[in-house]
């Protein structure tokens, strides 16, 4: 088992990761850095190539600027690959990796999903209206990868099926047509996901989900799968008490290494596509905070109802703050909270001192 602490890139932490954050990481690279294009705001989009094998893997992170967990994991991966670890040496001898740590530097700086033209780059794979999309497609065409890893974050609302387990990591082998046929490229991606899921079950049993495979030919994963390249969507989700996603980062790192090991050692066909479908589909069963008996705090709430609260991520300075917002009110049966608050009939209503924002939100509610 890998000792993750040996490879964690300590210079980058938390949720706000922009172009400046990763400059010290680029400085430690043992391979050349290539500018593959410019963003809308004329910021360099950098990539690098590592390894000398004939199995080519392309991976990219922060296509959505506010999805930074996988960027941290990518730099952990680089530390691993540049180490003396024997598995790292095998991967580099069998594979050539091209890595784009931050495809959307403008969105990363502003902590937004979209780029500076307010376009979702993950919905621009066919139209190629944005400079970042064009730069990526040119890189793809020049590198001609055998595998693609599309690295993202997902919201805290996702559960692994209709359970009380968060979808801490989710995967998808995207469809390449509306019928969602299991094409050869899709089958390979499914088998790699099965390999990663088996590994993750030893770390987070029951907390791996399968992302929705609805087809959209303007999404990057669907487009690349249509082109015959096995493509995997990685989604970094919530681990209990880990809003900075440092534990999830570790799990994504381990997943990428497992996928690369499976590719490098020619073990893909050891896994079965049927096991892919045994991974529970992502559901939306979670609130960040579930408040029970809110009528004790504020009589505007109906007895028997609960309040589901979700956090809005807001960039203030260079720090992400989590601001509570009421998302839903009702019986909310079958829903869960990453935190559950039971209001009690007393002066402080049962709220802890660090829950003042939530208490204030409930007190101000006016139906």
Walk me through what this model shows:
By secondary structure, this protein is α/β, with parallel strands linked by helices. It folds into two domains: 4-283, Aminopeptidase, CATH 3.40.630.10; 286-364, no CATH class. It is built from ten helices and 14 strands. The chain has helices at residues 23-27, 69-81, 86-94, 105-110, 131-143, 184-200, 220-226, 246-264, 273-276, 356-364, and strands at residues 33-38, 44-51, 55-60, 95-100, 147-153, 159-160, 169-172, 208-210, 231-236, 282-283, 286-292, 306-316, 319-330, 336-342. The strands form three sheets. An eight-stranded mixed beta sheet has the order 1-2-4-3-5-9-7-8, sandwiched between helices. Strands 13-12-11-14 form a four-stranded mixed beta sheet. A two-stranded antiparallel ribbon has the order 6-10. Strand 7, helix 6 and strand 8 form a beta-alpha-beta unit. Helix 2 (69-81) packs across helix 8 (246-264) and helix 6 (184-200) crosses helix 8 (246-264). The model has no long low-confidence stretch (mean pLDDT 96).
Radius of gyration: 21 Å
Q: How many extended strands?
A: 14
Query: Beta-sheet strand percentage?
Result: 15-25%
Describe the strand arrangement of the main beta sheet, using strand numbers.
1-2-4-3-5-9-7-8
- The shape is globular
**Major beta sheet summary:** 8 strands, mixed
Compute the number of helices: 10
Spatial gap, N to C terminus: 54 Å
CATH class designation of the largest domain: Alpha Beta
Order of helices and strands: HEEEHHEHHEEEHEHEHHEEEEEH
CATH architecture of the largest domain: 3-Layer(aba) Sandwich
CATH superfamily of the largest domain: Zn peptidases
Provide the number of structural domains.
2
CATH topology call of the largest domain: Aminopeptidase
């Amino acid at each position: 088992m890998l000792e993750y602490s040996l490879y964690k890139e300590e210079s980058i932490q938390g949720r706000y990761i922009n172009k400046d954050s990763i400059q010290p990481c680029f400085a430690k690279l043992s391979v050349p850095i290539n500018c593959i294009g410019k963003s809308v705001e004329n910021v360099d989009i950098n990539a690098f190539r590592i390894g000398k094998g004939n199995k080519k893997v392309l991976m990219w992170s922060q296509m959505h600027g506010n999805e930074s967990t996988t960027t941290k994991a990518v730099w952990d991966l680089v530390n691993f690959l540049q180490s003396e670890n024997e598995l790292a040496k095998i991967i580099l001898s069998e594979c050539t990796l091209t890595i784009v740590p931050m495809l959307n530097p403008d969105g990363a700086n502003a902590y937004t999903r979209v780029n500076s033209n307010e376009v979702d780059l993950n919905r621009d794979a066919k139209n190629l209206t944005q400079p970042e999309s064009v730069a990526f497609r040119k890189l793809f065409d020049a590198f001609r990868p055998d595998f693609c890893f599309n690295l993202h974050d997902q919201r805290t609302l996702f559960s692994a099926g209709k359970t009380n387990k968060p979808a801490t990591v989710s995967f998808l082998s995207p469809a390449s047509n509306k019928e969602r046929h299991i094409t050869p490229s899709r089958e390979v991606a499914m088998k790699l996901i099965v390999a990663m899921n088996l590994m993750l079950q030893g770390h987070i049993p029951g907390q791996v989900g399968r992302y929705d495979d609805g087809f959209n030919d303007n999404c990057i994963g669907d487009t690349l799968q249509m082109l015959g390249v096995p493509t995997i969507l990685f989604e970094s989700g919530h681990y209990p008490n880990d809003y900075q996603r440092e534990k999830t980062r570790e799990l994504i790192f381990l997943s990428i290494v497992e996928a690369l090991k499976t590719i490098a050692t020619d073990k893909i066909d050891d896994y079965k596509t049927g096991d892919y479908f045994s991974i529970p589909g992502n559901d939306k069963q979670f609130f960040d905070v579930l408040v029970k008996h809110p009528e004790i705090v504020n009589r505007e709430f109906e007895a028997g109802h609960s309040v589901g609260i979700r956090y809005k991520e807001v960039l203030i300075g260079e720090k992400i703050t989590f601001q509570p917002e009421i998302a839903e009110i009702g019986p909310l049966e079958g829903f869960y909270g990453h935190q559950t608050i039971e209001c009690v009939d007393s002066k402080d209503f049962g709220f802890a001192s660090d829950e003042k924002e939530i208490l204030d939100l409930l007190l101000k509610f006016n139906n």
